[in-house]
Write a structure and sequence with these properties.
The structure is a homotetramer.
Chain A lengths: L3 H5 L2 H22 L2 H8 L3 H7 L3 H25 L6 H18 L1 H12 L4 H9 L4 H14 L9 H26 L3 H23 L9
Helix pairs in contact in A: 2-3, 2-7, 5-6, 6-7, 6-10, 6-11, 9-10
Chain D binds a DNA duplex through α4.
DNA sequence: CATGAATGAGCTTTCATTCAT
DNA sequence: GATGAATGAAAGCTCATTCAT
């Protein structure tokens, strides 16, 4: 937990620090992220940093929590209409909102995804131990609900499928960044194309694991 | 590229070094992998290491190439029957063979997957720049073929879908290791269960993106 | 020398600061004593501290002086009866009073003894240079007097013997603390035992360096 | 324990390092001793230091052990004639030999005495825990023996008296250095005077705690 | 006069890489 | 070719002291 001093800082400075740190962790991952580089980036003294945070880990935990909260907040509007949507529409909205969030906050996304992809890293277990629930948990939950409601086949392993779905979600974001970079596309235009792509993805999810499936014979 | 001296080494010693290095990169990722630990593990002198390899990066490139080749070789038998299988059967075989390979070579798999998951890492671009094609490329290729043959819908973005498929592949392996760990299952019994899971995954891929799809109405 | 501001402080606050500082120096010695910990302990601001004292050294000098004065004050009653006592009785009273003082003020004692034992430390010479006379000086003085009065042999080096006596004094206190700790003795009971020990010590001092000594032939 | 590398060093270099380190610890004590200063003093690279020793503590333990052994070795000849000497002669020889050792090895002595005087320091307990016996133990042992043999009164607390004696021993060395410094005496001449001083000290010890004592009435 | 944030030199330690034998 | 000691830049972190309000 950051120290009092950090919270007492003027908003602008605090955001500057947070921003610098996020972009550092986004670019280098946990281990190679350098406190020295962070303080240089945001123009504070090394000593000041340690008046704001206990240590590197403290900063990282703070950021991960914050980032996770921000993401949850971004998905909140969708989650609130949870009752009205069927499973696939819900997933679709989550994917779309996730992509929009990623487009708005690429650094945050990169940082978050690093952790998602480095579950073998010691820091991951510490964070999970501290009680942060990952985005993946959301999917497990709503998937189980969907099975109960008969919207999804009951012969699947929900653990496996939700694991797959969150992978797909992260993968889609990754693809989005990668493709945008390569094609140097105008973001606006490009994003529209992305919506179709997501729709397609959802479509194939649905017809794959949905209950309807008259044509699901192998 | 390793130096001449490395290739002049007796097979056994070379394999010892490779094995030690792989398990190091598997356990710690690129950054935290330690040359010191590697040379200790395989009992060679620090100086010798630098007579075999230019530097850490050189070793890593070599291993990644080698590992990638090994994986390709493992999937070769399947790929050779490429003509006989339809797309989904082919994918199924690839997934299964991939899982078997992972079970036989967990270290190699971990090391490979680290790279797959750290595409943002500086080292990734260097490797791609050097010209290593990833496993993902396989999927793009056969997917495009499948579209041509009418086995897969032609309204999909092959780049995106193949990206998704390779994510699913890696994700499945990850899930496999994770679940096996948690359940401390007997490997034999456990693996059988995994086949069903893969079948399910393929099934949902097929009925999702296959052309048949009478029941694919949204 | 503390600044004006320090002396303008309300008594209670001043004492609080002094107490916190003493216990800090007692526990950690000069080098490892932390200004931060001191100000936290007594609840003043870091900046305030530097409005009271020039720096860490200034505080330390002040405390050493103060502590030394307090000790002198504690021994004053004994010293005033100096004329009535013979040397050994005087020493005995000083040792006893010193032990009592130590028992009442363990922190002060620890702090003082640290300095006594770290005469090689840069800070020691600075303090002596500034003109603080140590407790040892007392012994030199009264020892010389005793020689004059014929109570102590005149073939001794008074410098050396007084040095030895003050060492014994500090050593006795150290032993007292140590033994009390180990035996977890009730302070009351334990202290009584200590009186005998002191008596013994004095006895051996006396018959060692006293003039009487018919039996002193080697 | 130092690493292999250290023991493989040429004697001269090893001694250079040991010397630099000892003089550093002698001058600054454990906490303030600086690895940077040590490596600069003996002209090795910072990294080299850590190929010789695990860390600062490792170096310190090594030195303390070494220094302690050297001192024991210096006193060995005396201790071997233990049977032939009576207690006071033995003590006298030990004191004298100790002084000579101190005169020959002032740095070593300073370093050793720092530890002796800082028994409250965390490092002390660690060292004792590791099993290094202090010089004080010698005195306890031979004192108890002397009591058994009837050379020393049996109404004393051996723990306390041996504690006092070792204090006197250290104190004498301290006095020796101090006085020599102040008087800038020629070492040769000065040392001779010191012998008399020691004789005197032993004399007063003997007639104090010896059994003979017809004249020990208070 | 009180406050507490800001500072930066200094610390111990690590590690890929080079060098000398 | 093999060895392993030597190197030094850079890391995370501490803390007495100064500064701005």
């Amino acid at each position: 937990m950051p120290k009092e001093t950090f919270y007492n800082l003027p908003d602008k400075k605090r955001q500057l620090i947070v921003g610098s740190a996020i972009s550092e962790f986004a670019a280098f991952g946990y281990d190679k992220a350098s406190i020295t580089r962070i303080v240089n980036k945001c123009g504070i003294a090394k000593g000041s940093f340690y008046q704001y945070f206990e240590d590197k880990k403290d900063l990282y935990f703070y950021l991960v929590t914050k980032v996770s909260e921000e993401k949850v907040r971004a998905l909140e509007p969708v989650m609130q209409k949870r009752g009205q949507y069927d499973f696939f529409t819900l997933i679709r909205e989550l994917f779309l909102e996730g992509l929009k969030f990623a487009a708005r906050n690429p650094q945050i996304t990169l940082m978050g995804d690093w952790l998602f992809k480095n579950k073998g890293h010691p820091i991951y277990n510490e964070i999970v131990g501290v009680g942060l629930q990952s985005a993946q948990n959301i999917y497990t939950e709503i998937l189980e609900e969907a099975i109960k409601k008969g919207q999804v086949r009951d012969d699947i392993d929900p653990g496996f499928i939700s694991h797959s779905i969150s992978s797909l979600s992260v993968s889609a974001v990754e693809y989005y960044f990668q493709a945008r970079e390569e094609k140097k596309a105008r973001v606006r235009k490009f994003d529209e194309g992305m919506i179709d792509t997501i729709d397609l993805l959802i479509d194939f999810l649905k017809n794959g694991i949905g209950t309807k499936g008259k044509g699901r014979q192998q």
